[in-house]
Amino acid sequence: MLNKNITIKILSVVLAFVLWLYVMGEKNPEITVDIGNIPVNIVNVNTLEKKGLTLIDNKNYTVTVKVRGRRSDIMGIRSSDIQVQADLSRVTTKGTNVIPVEISSIPKNITFVSANPSEIKIDIDNIAKVQMPVSVKVSGNVADGYAMKPAISTPGEVVISGPESKINLVKNVIAQVNMSNKTKDVKISVPAVAVDRDNNEVKGINIDPKFVDVGIAVNRAIRVPVNAKIFGKPQNGYDIAAVNVLPEYVYVTGEDAVLNGIKNINTKQIDITGLNHSLTQNVQFDLPQGVSLVKDSTAKVYIDIQKIITKDITLTNIEVKDTNNRNVTLNNSSITISVEGLESVVNNTTADNFNASIDISNLSSGKQNANVNVTTDLNLKITKISPNTLSVNIP
Hints:
Largest sheet: 11 strands, mixed
Strand content: over 45%
Low-confidence stretches: none
Number of helices: 6
Mean pLDDT: 91
CATH topology of the largest domain: RNA Polymerase Alpha Subunit, Chain A, domain 2
Distance between the termini: 190 Å
CATH architecture of the largest domain: Beta Complex
Number of domains: 4
């Protein structure tokens, strides 16, 4: 009787288990599903630096994970409940490395089946580190009547580091400051930006420090003429025809007390001693103490040196001046003059450039000799008048 009861109990348990399996299979079956857009965690990135390597780009990778489990367990899963990773600890060379995707965390009662893709491609490069100067790029113009001095960056250099291929693209590190309508000194902290040859930002690299302090002094500015300072004399028989200076004017800046006494800015001395030819020379400015140039650093000075020549010119139009308005007769109405001057002036000189006259106002009647006077507006020296007197009959 006892054995019979035990047998019945065992059969009941087995039957109950079979019924439970049946119910679970019908009501809560085991299913397989795909869960997409699961981000891949890149781990052990720090191991690359120890090997002199680094990621070229910090891309975002995602995969689709296939999992299996009971419907009730599967339906409650969120994508954030599953974590996958790519381990970089075994990477040893630069280039494109294929890294398998691994499950690092999955809910209880859920089985990982596969990941698609099952591996990802990660680009690795050598680490490069370079020290570079900081160039301050100023945009905008200060207010009228003011000028800014050259910008000063502190520190003047930064260290850029990152993938070698990206570091090689960097041509400049710049700090940008806007000075529109400023009338006072500017001190500002701005980011240091690495740019390529086309001034496009090179991203994905480290800059140390990330920010630099830029100082730009702003002072009142005035516009003054430039005076070429010439020393010495040309060779005998030569002289200066003209002096041209570029720029003709410069803007200078400084404290008000200094600027108020400035009328012009001289160049450094230019020695023309013994020259018999023209001269073009770039020369620095001779700046008073406390004064600085806004833009130009040198002046271009052209000194035209010409030969002094002579020329004889005949004048036939002689004016007679007489306050008594007498009707007089000139016995000779022609004279010859000798003129001396710069070659370019003398060669283009004609009789029309001269006024010849005699004044008989103080002469009495009869045949008289009157002194000849010759004038010109040209820069010429009249060395001889022949004859220097003219005979005139005064009624």
